[in-house]
Structures are given as C-alpha cells and as structure tokens.
Amino acid sequence: MPLRTALLFQANNFVGREYLHALQSAGMTPDLIASVGRMSDSSIARERDRTDGRWNPPAPDAALNIPHYDSLTEDDLWDSLRAAEIDIAIQGGIGILKPAMLETPRIGFVNVHPGRLPAYKGNTCLEWALYNEDDIYATAHIIDAGIDTGPIIFEGRYDIADNWDYFDLRANLYAHCARVLITALTLLEDAGDDPANILTVQDPDAGHYWQPIPEDKLEIARQRLNQGAA
Question: Residues with Cβ < 8 Å from 175, sequence gap 6 or more?
Fold first, then answer.
C-alpha cells in the first residue's frame, strides 16, 4: 500500500512551499498538509538576503485544504495526524519536535538535512563544505531526539552548475533537498512493512557539529565557488 504522508511547515515558510511543489509535481501530494506557526519576518529577510531574492517557490494552490495551527502544542494537530493514519510526516520547517510528537506517525518524521551526515551537522553545512572544498550533499533521515542524528534513509550529491554564484547555490538548495526527499519516500514505500532494512544508523561518535560559519570564512567559501573549487 502507498505510504500515507503529511507535510507540516510554517506559514510563509519557503522550505514547505518548495517541498509541496515538488511532491505535487511528482504525483505525491501529501494526504495531510498543515501549516504550524509562522516564519518570522527576520527569517524571511535572511533567506532573501542570502539568495539575493532568487528563492521564491510557488505558493500552495488555493484549492488545497491547508489548516493552520498556531503552535506544535495544539492537540488538534496531532489528532488530525492520528485520524489520517499517517505513516510518515515531513518536517518542512516547524521547529523542535518532542519525543511524543515524533511517535505520532507510524514510521516517524523525515527531515532532509542540507549536509552530508554524520560529517556535517549544523545549520551552515553548505558553506562549511564549500570552505573545506568538499562535495555538498543533502541527507534524508528519520528524526530522533538528537540534532541531525537519526537513521539515514538516503543521501544525494548536490550538482552545482558552472555558472552559479553563491546566491544561485543557496536559491536552488532546497529544490535539491526536495529531490532527495522524494527518493527517500520512494525507498520507504518500497521497503514495505520493514523500513529498518533501508536505514543506516549513525555512529553517535562519528561526524562533527559545525557552528555557524563566521563571515571571514564565508567570504573564502564564496570565492572558492566563484573560482570553481567546489
């Protein structure tokens, strides 16, 4: 049977819009779509700044039923996932999920981390990979109680066009994450009743958590991209 999926994202969240567009285009529209909370004005401004305004995924179709919840603490949200018998919920940018929330879908929550796990944990992994002259990856994993520590479903290398600058790289990042998400969902569906067979458990002692990249190193990373070092 096809997996029953849910997509949860903040209202106005760019990631959620990117994922929804890709899932619909692939004929994989989630069985339940909901917005939870709102993306702050400062977060929106930050994304527009680091993509030079080039990241603007399509808004959800007005015909879609997308209920809104003010926060993750609303019982009606979790009741709706249980009522819809959701197998996999997609983290489209909704904040930290408590253990009881993670247990609501049958299999769990899937997140696509814009970095290669476990080597690159943290929130500026793309920039650190550029700085380190490593390939850039996105990793789909099941969310657990840690940060970027859950079992890995699939990783995909991010192919960079020759003519891209840093803004292009950032603007197209979550379209790549969406492709990784679709592959991960397909693998989970093909795995049937025993998804553990396709999961790779991360070594808790492996990898590295990268703090936000400082401006001087970010500038070096940008220069390396422009010089074709990535």
Answer: 18, 22, 57
